[in-house]
From TrEMBL:
PANTHER family: ENT-KAURENE OXIDASE, CHLOROPLASTIC. It holds the Pfam family p450. InterPro entries: Cyt_P450 (IPR001128), Cyt_P450_CS (IPR017972), Cyt_P450_E_grp-I (IPR002401), Cyt_P450_sf (IPR036396), KO_chloroplastic (IPR044225). The lineage of its organism: Eukaryota, Viridiplantae, Streptophyta, Embryophyta, Tracheophyta. Its cofactor is heme. The keyword Metal-binding applies. Keywords: Heme, Iron, Membrane, Metal-binding, Monooxygenase, Oxidoreductase, Transmembrane, Transmembrane helix. Its main location: membrane. It is a single-pass membrane protein. It comes from the Eukaryota. GO terms for cellular component: chloroplast outer membrane; endoplasmic reticulum. Heme binds at residue 470. GO terms for biological process: ent-kaurene oxidation to kaurenoic acid; gibberellin biosynthetic process; isoquinoline alkaloid biosynthetic process. This is Ent-kaurene oxidase.
């Protein structure tokens, strides 16, 4: 239930958001408290007896409170950690209540694959939060598989993320990686050796520029840009916030009506105004960026980018709102998850010098005095191990977007009725002690085992599975692994003394480190 509850992980989130629906619910008397309590206790006893007798047909239930269920148990914790802890008690599949919603949480790779692949036709619908509906996030990664979704996915694979598109965008990626290395070199030359560098800031700036080039043909943002619809000039950082950071945090905003849909008629003005302002600013920035490039296209100047190819293929039939959404989605996804994975990989390598040295030696053996390139990936097997172990230990989306069960089905041997919501805890799957040895440790060597195919992108569930597999898996692999390899090839990495066990808590819907990686880089001679 990442899209509903991840926001509760935020340390500054208001603690009283449940008071309003609770008070209203009690006042209007939808149900009698004593009746609900009696039903709850009877139901709980019956389920426990069934579990003990081995005849249970429903998943174990995590005890909660009447009306609000398990919400209070989740509000002060990191959701995916809480889910994993409950799996230790109740097993890999169990049921929780979030207000009026019944949610079955999956913490096992086998059961997750059953839900995503085998039972896809029964569990294919995605749940949209009020925040996402207000933000009009009609994007591939969160919407149901309908005709629009199929059209959008076809174009994003053909013109942006597929193998052919990746070859066409190769020059942009090479320039981006060189800029990252040059930025680290500049820091090392201009600052004392013990002065740490903010790795996220350097990588994020370059990744954002790459996403703009692939989507629009050029990085037209520069250091700032005037947005006519807003009547103000926004800096590059402000535009990145509007297009990437705000939608990620906004999509996780909690509207208590998500948990109590029968009270959707009650206004929540502060929430609606806050989300509405985010949406207006995002649309105006995208309008400025797209119209600027449409003038270029009208003048006959074509560039190899997603916008140009969309206009050529669907320009006469694609609504302006859909065009904006398709372009923005590639900027959003291409600007964030790659940064998160690369940052965690460099953090782990900086604090585990034996793994860093292993990777460096293998890169040198394959590349010698030449710069690492994408073509050498298959020869540097330890790089693949580092990449997949980072995805396992720090999945980009710890909890997948909620799905609806729209027909009665079974999962993990349990009956799951229609109307149930499914949350796949990818973090819990990757921390399952029955599948992984010492899962809490970051150990790339585990993926050197012969049971893992070096060319398999889906060693973990981080890229999804089945018909909803992530279309950006190939780009994520190429950019992240090339960035890791070049950074290790050109620099020795170490954490600032005293930060060896720094906080690795995460923020927003993705696994972005709560605090940016501050690292000391020392140029190598090779």
């Amino acid at each position: 239930m990442g899209l509903f509850v991840e926001c509760l992980d935020k340390p500054n989130h208001p603690k009283h958001f449940l008071v309003i629906p609770l008070v209203i619910t009690l006042i209007i008397g939808f149900v009698s408290m004593f009746t609900i309590l009696k039903y709850y206790l009877t139901n709980r006893t019956g389920r426990n007896n069934n579990l003990l007798s081995g005849t249970c047909s429903s998943p174990p239930v995590v005890p909660g409170l009447p009306l609000i269920g398990n919400l209070l148990q989740l509000k002060d914790e990191i959701t995916h950690h809480t889910f994993a802890n409950w799996a230790e008690i109740y097993g890999p599949i169990y049921s929780i209540k979030a207000g009026a919603s019944n949610i079955v949480v999956l913490n096992s790779t086998d059961v997750a694959k059953e839900a995503m692949v085998t039972k896809f036709s029964f569990i294919s619908k995605r749940k949209q939060t009020n925040a996402m509906n207000k933000l009009k996030n009609n994007i591939i990664i969160t919407r149901d598989s309908n005709e629009y979704h199929k059209m959008a996915r076809r174009h994003v694979v053909t013109h942006m993320l597929g193998a052919g598109a990746q070859r066409r965008h190769r020059a942009h990626r090479d320039i981006m990686i060189d800029n990252v290395v040059n930025g680290l070199n500049a820091h090392a030359k201009e600052n004392p050796m013990d002065q740490p560098v903010n790795f996220r800031r350097i990588l994020q700036t370059e990744i954002f520029g790459l996403a703009l080039k692939q989507a629009l043909g050029v990085d037209s943002v520069g250091s700032s840009k005037y947005i006519e619809g807003l009547g103000e000039t926004l800096s590059r950082d402000e535009i990145f916030k509007v297009l990437v950071l705000d939608p990620l945090s906004g999509g996780a905003e909690v509207d208590w009506r998500d948990f109590f849909p029968y009270l959707r008629w009650v206004p929540n003005k502060s929430f609606e105004m806050h989300i509405g302002r985010m949406e207006i600013r995002r649309l105006e920035v995208m309008k400025t960026l797209i119209e600027e490039q449409q003038k270029r296209i009208s003048s006959g100047q074509e560039i190899n980018c997603y916008l140009d190819r969309l206009m050529l293929a669907e320009g006469k039939t694609l609504a302006k709102t859909h065009l904006t959404m398709l372009i923005w989605e590639t900027i959003l996804v291409g600007s964030e998850t790659i940064v998160d994975t690369a940052e965690f990989a460099m953090y782990e390598l900086a604090r585990n010098l034996k793994y860093q040295d292993h990777l460096y030696r293998e890169i040198q053996k394959v590349c010698g005095n030449n710069k690492y390139t994408e073509e050498q990936f298959s020869g540097v097997t330890y790089l693949s191990a580092v990449f997949h172990e980072t995805l396992r230990r720090h999945p980009p989306f710890p909890v997948s977007p909620l799905r609806y069960v729209h027909e009665d089905t079974q999962l993990g041997g349990y009956d799951i009725p229609a109307g149930t919501e499914i949350a796949i805890n990818l973090y819990g799957c990757n921390m399952d002690k029955r599948q992984w040895d010492s899962p809490e440790e970051w150990k790339p060597d585990r993926f050197l085992d012969s049971k893992y195919d070096p060319n398999d992108l889906y060693k973990t569930m981080s890229f999804g599975g089945g018909k909803r597999v992530c279309p950006g898996a190939l780009q994520g692999l190429s950019i992240t692994c090339t960035a890791i390899a070049r950074c290790i090839q050109d620099f020795k990495w170490s954490l600032k003394p005293g930060r060896e066990e720094e906080d690795i808590n995460t923020a927003t819907l993705t696994s972005q480190k709560l605090n940016p990686l501050l690292v000391i880089v020392t140029p190598r001679d090779y």
